[in-house]
Records
---
Amino acid sequence: MKVDSEFATFEKMASGLMAIPHATIKAKLEAEKEAKRVTKKGKATRRRGA
Amino acid sequence: MLSVFGDESADETQQRVFAVGGVIGDEDRWNWLEERWIICNEGAPFHATDCDSDSGNYKGREHSANKNLYKSLTILLAESGLGGWGFAIDLQAQRKVFPESPDIAYYKCFLEVLLAMRNCAAHNKETVKYTFDLRRKDKYNAGYLYSRLVEQKDWKDHIFTKIAFESSRENNRLQVADLFVRETMKALDNHFGPVKRPPRKSFETLVETGRFHVEAIGEEWFQDLKRQMDFDKELGPPEEYRAWLKENDFSHNTLSMFRYIEWRNREK
């Protein structure tokens, strides 16, 4: 039924897209990027030292 | 008290980018700008897309005259002391990650702009009053979302009890928001759209003041949201929603779905 499928997708989006503030996801993505950058830098330093 | 005037903008196909933006400031700054805005526009209502593309009321005028007007108004806004915050969504990325997503881009952008402006008001120990461009289709739903925010503890001390929706033809300050949100939308469209272009001078003029900020969400952001949603709480069965509609004698529409989710969250 159309109502069911529309509501199901709406509810899913409302619980995620609407309820999770942009800043929360942005901060997480930036932290992940920073962690990757630090790991990469650490590996490069170790390689140079070896 | 601070006043925010907000508007929305989309690319010409309405398929690539959607944005909402708000311009914020105190009454003195708004009056300073408004006085000069009216003189620059010779009393006529300004419309950013038409002015920028030689269409509507700007059709038949010299292209350079339209460009100069747009440039002058951008410089005025940059010099006004007002600030702005825009939020844009890459609609293609949203469709790619959530192919069946309902059309709620406006509400997401709207809420993010409200939140940024509320934070600005709280930071300055002020209260903020919002006026948005009258968008008939979404006015009631946006008004409903606002009415729910007003009741929340973190919000009620910093936002005005009512939100206003007015026509930009009769409100110069909404025309200011129209210019800023067009810049927000174009900034993202030039980056993600089919033709890659460098940032517009008008956008750079505003951003260089340090008072105008734009946030945009693309595929990486939606992918992360999807990962979070996979672990989200269990959702309610649609049959319950249908029964609730019947019980309350409501029709199935966006407002009813917002109401139902809010009602269910309250009940639980």
Note: Residues 24 and 41 of chain A are 26 Å apart (CA to CA).
---
Amino acid sequence: MTRSNEPAVWSLFSAGGVVAAFVFPALMIVTGLAAFFGWVAPAELYSVLQHPLTRVCLFVCIALPLFHWAHRFRYTVADLGLEGHDKLLSIVCYGLASVGTLLAAVLLIFR
Amino acid sequence: MAVHATHDLTREYRRTVPSTWWLKRRTYFLFMLRELTALFVGGYAAFLLVLLLLDQATFASVLKSPVSLVLHLIALPMVIYHSVTWINLTPKVLVIWRGEEQVSPTLILLVHYAAWGVISLAILGLAIWLCGGKTI
């Protein structure tokens, strides 16, 4: 059997899919509609983001969905005619997701 | 010519598929639509990341801008489509047995939709409770 990283990236893809499915629509209503129409005050939303518990949740809500994107996008682009470039696609997709995860961790800890 | 022919004989046959294959059938199109929801899921994660870079004044003006509203209105249906397609797959992935009996796929589906509803209401309620609504 050939060695593969598929189980690891599939787990991240799946976990990100779950987080995005259950949390993103409501979160988008908060940041998109509620903040715009004044149902929530952006300044107060900003201060909620400073709380450590919010930051842990935010890290999960950024990192896992990024890997969800990376995995699905890699295969979608291949399906659209770039199946010969899987190695490059993997590096770009998982690379961007990793950079985003690292950036999220740094920002959430130090800012 | 002959050289090319013998060379080609040893190669694996690959049928070329036009990159518009997903426009050929409704089910293909819906599959591609589902796959493309990942762009909006990733995009929103990136948006959250950008929000972390902003100071309070910029944060407020970004969320109050019409551009933010329009982008959210475009992305929201796609992300909801992700949620629906994702939850609809759960009975296929989660096959649970209670003794000799298989737990009904419909029940698994209902539990997930209920969880989605509860989590969504909790997030919205918490946001409005903590961040004070003027108009509600």
Note: The mean pLDDT of chain A is 91.
